[in-house]
Amino acid sequence: MDADTIARMIEAGLPGSQARVQGDDGVHFEATVVCAAFAGKLPLARHRMVYATLGELMGGAIHALALKTVTPEEATAGG
Question: What Pfam families does the entry give (predicted)?
Fold first, then answer.
């Protein structure tokens, strides 16, 4: 599994989102996801939305995914 593939899957599953994913070992990744659909949602709900785009890869091919989830407004504000 590579970071670009994960980013594409997240962006496909969350229309209008932008995902930046990094990971050097192929199983541990860090991602920043900017998505308007996160508005009004708590961090746990936002993370679940991202995990849903990756399905069974979570806990399998993707051993760990550290997430930062923000709305476009939060990203602009530096949040």
Answer: BolA
